[in-house]
């Protein structure tokens, strides 16, 4: 990097058509000053932003993702999609932190159509935060290959995570306070470790085996796990018919090769 070159973060924004997008438009019309780092995708509701959209944005080189929706209890749809966005962002931040990506790179805010100055203020605050974090991956001390590997392993879990969210991670009371309390609590941490963290290790192991057969020691070294923990995962995967042990080469291989 040339001396004196300033890092300009790339930010992808998903903005609700009815509120935040209109607020951003008002900020522009009103000539409120804020950094032009964000490319905007307009969608009908913040609740339509999927985990897959966030991980695809990071996988394609965005340094941060911003989601803007209507204020809580002011959604234009009876489904109250901004609660779905709130729950998704809490889970996504936890998952990002678990793979070593700073959760601060993902931000959710409520902005009404008349809050152009609020939108500009958020951008004036958010962009310098991402500038300070640095480029995605480098700011976390991850090289390009390691970042790609971790993002891909997490992305492969998304269909399963969405099922878990529906069945085990639902918040019974639809208030912002209830959502924030649940996702900041010990019960969510326990469920995340029980239902998602182990699956993430399994997803990483399957990606490693996609490239070449590996011994328990190889996997242990690649993932920084103890041999006994790796052995547990391999036994579980063998019972599920996902991997098999090749006794001739003394290593593990996928039971069914990906096409």
Detailed description of the structure:
- By secondary structure, the protein is an alpha/beta fold.
- It has two domains: 11-141, Rossmann fold (3-Layer(aba) Sandwich); 158-254, Arc Repressor Mutant, subunit A.
- Helices cover 51% and strands 12% of the residues.
- It has helices at 20-29, 51-59, 81-98, 116-133, 144-155, 158-167, 176-183, 186-211, 216-223, 227-239, and strands at 11-16, 38-43, 64-69, 106-110, 243-246, 251-254.
- The strands form two sheets. A four-stranded parallel sheet has the order 2-1-3-4, with helices on both faces.
- β1 (11-16), α1 (20-29) and β2 (38-43) form a beta-alpha-beta unit.
- α3 (81-98) runs parallel beside α7, α5 packs across α8 (186-211) and α9 packs across α10 (227-239).
- The longest helix has 26 residues, at 186-211.
- It starts with 10 loop residues before the first strand and ends in a 5-residue tail after the last strand.
Give a topology summary.
Blueprint: E1 11-16, H1 20-29, E2 38-43, H2 51-59, E3 64-69, H3 81-98, E4 106-110, H4 116-133, H5 144-155, H6 158-167, H7 176-183, H8 186-211, H9 216-223, H10 227-239, E5 243-246, E6 251-254
Parallel strand pairs: 1-2, 1-3, 3-4
Antiparallel strand pairs: 5-6
Task: Write a concise keyword list for the protein shown above.
Rossmann fold, Arc Repressor Mutant, subunit A, 6 strands, 259 residues, 2 domains
Please, what is the average pLDDT? 95
Characterize the largest beta sheet: strand count, sense, and whether it forms a barrel: 4 strands, parallel
Which spans have pLDDT < 50 for at least 5 consecutive residues? Answer: none
Q: Compute the number of strand runs.
A: 6
The assigned structural class equals alpha/beta
Spatial strand arrangement across the major sheet: 2-1-3-4
Rg from Cα? 21 Å
What's the number of structural domains?
2
* CATH level 1 name of the largest domain: Alpha Beta
Helical content (DSSP H or I, runs of 4+): 40-55%
CATH topology of the largest domain: Rossmann fold
So, CATH architecture of the largest domain?
3-Layer(aba) Sandwich
Described by the principal axes of the CA atoms, the overall outline is: globular
Give me the number of helical elements.
Answer: 10
Distance, first to last CA = 39 Å
| Beta-strand percentage range | 5-15%
- The helix-strand sequence is EHEHEHEHHHHHHHEE
